[in-house]
Amino acid sequence: MPSHNADIAAVFEEIANLLEIEGANPFRIRAYRNAVQAIGALSTEAYVLLENKEDLTELPGIGRDLAGKIEEIIATGHCALLDRLQTELPPAVTELLKVPGLGPKRVRHLYHDLDVQTVEQLYGAAREGRIRALSGFGEKTELNILQAIEAHTDQKGRFKLAVAAQYAEPLRAFLADVPGVKEAIVAGSYRRMRETVGDLDIVVTAASGSPVMERFTGYEEVAEILAAGSTRASVVLKCGLQVDLRVVADESYGAALHYFTGSKAHNVAVRYIAQKKGLKVNEYGVFRGKNRIAGETEESVYRAAGLSFIPPELRENRGEIDVARTRKLPRLVELCDLRGDLHTHTKATDGHNTLREMALAGKSHGLEYIAVTDHSRGLRVTRGLDPLRLKRQCDEIDALNEELEGITLLKGIEVDILEDGTLDLPDHVLAQLDLVVGAVHSKFELPRARQTERILRAMEHPHFTVLAHPNGRLIPQRPPYDIDMPRIIREAGRRGCFLELNAQPERLDLFDIYCQMAKEEGVLVSINSDAHSTFDFANLRFGIGQARRGWLEKQDVLNTRSLEELRILIARTMQRPNTCGPYKRQTKPQIRSGKNVR
DNA sequence: GCCGTTTTCGGCCCGACTGTTTTCAGTCG
User: Fold this and answer.
1) What's the whole-number average pLDDT of chain A?
2) InterPro entries, per this entry (predicted)?
3) Segments of chain A with pLDDT less than 70
4) Which fold has domain A159-248?
């Protein structure tokens, strides 16, 4: 089995870590880290590119040397450089880099002088007071290491976006209320709508002398103050979430917001471009010499660099800068573009509300139609529907549609895709429905080839409409199942069916890079709440965030269509007659134009 | 180790805070 892109990226990541501890040229280390990012963003397996005789040096940040190493890893499963580095340094030593406060220099010191190789050994050395004796270390550093390890072991890691929001919004409001504060905004990965966030970055503009720092460190949710200067402070909340606050003057608002929204790779690329124009970009503004020429708004920062405004969700240095140069960035889909929701549940299975309650809640969220897609009989824990109960539900929907105004219920099912790729209900039953949403709910551990074939076979079913939560991951407890997603996307394009972007905060599935791929293949994506209660429609905003990260525009999203248009598209997919002509496939958008900017 | 409308060599983003130091190295974002 050839190495997958994730395996290659892991090798390069490990090489970068070990080189760093060895004290190698920092730019060489950065080259490996850039390669990790480049390979992670690839829409095709590198071994497939090689089979197709593609030139890997065309990839951003991949030159002759790294291309050779990729070939080596694919051919042999090994990388000689990594093997050599691991004879010089024990592999576990890179784990020490994860301890906050420890960087490569200190890790090297600890290994060479105290033979510390693992976090356990580090903890022991700190408790025995052996670290303070090293030059460059002291009592305080030793204590910080102890505390960091203790905090690390019971730390929950990254927070789901929706959970982070529960802490971020009240804290932002609290800071906005401090006298002298003009703007307060949560930046960082939260603003970029990443599916999980490691910490919160908050930018505040305030008049000098404002008590904002004092109020921040005194916030009642603060458990620990990590650092507190005059313009920047870091705390850990009781829930374990770290929050970094930055205070700047009004005229630096845009520059600071840009800086703290990131991503780091995006910022580096923007500063590099500015530098070529003789400019310097920092969190205070854009400068030519000592003159500030921009910085009061983010738009002004981009303008100074010769770029159009780049929405936060795109700022990952995945080609957005090249496109911003040409002023052809996509007009990203917005929450208000959604006209329907094609995946919801009711009390009939594992939902909490009635048909009527769900319909009214959907309407109150501005939706014009919602598909009722309760589970099928195979999913016994949810009391999934058999043909008889489904028929009864359909009758209820018909009756309700007669009565309701401003919202239409569609008759659907979330049918189980069985292990062999068949669907959990008979064809003649599925044929009666408005749409069929198919999903995998069992046998997550099938090998890649079988899992992929299972889904492809299901998609071939004439009544199959939408593939729900295609990767099956649950943040943080379940990784995605092992499938050939690029192939599934291509086949969905050929077959003419749709892919779901499930907006539940623990799913957010399709992932962003697959949204991009779906767009390239002309496959429409349906952003669905998978609501199990009336409250869950609010999750659609997280789905929109993920879709925007995947460069999706209104026309790339199935449920931005009117009900009439939707019915036409579904009719085509379900291979039923319709009188409104074929759906015209889009031309492929070119969203990855050439190399990324370094 | 990568890259090139100034370049195939010599660049490669920028600043705050802490702790250990007596002016700065290390880490972080």
Assistant:
1) 89
2) DNA-dir_DNA_pol_X, DNA_pol_lamdba_lyase_dom_sf, DNA_Pol_thumb_sf, DNA_pol_X_beta-like, HHH_MUS81, Hlx-hairpin-Hlx_DNA-bd_motif, NT_sf, PHP_dom
3) 1-2, 152-156, 575-598
4) Beta Polymerase; domain 2 (3.30.460)
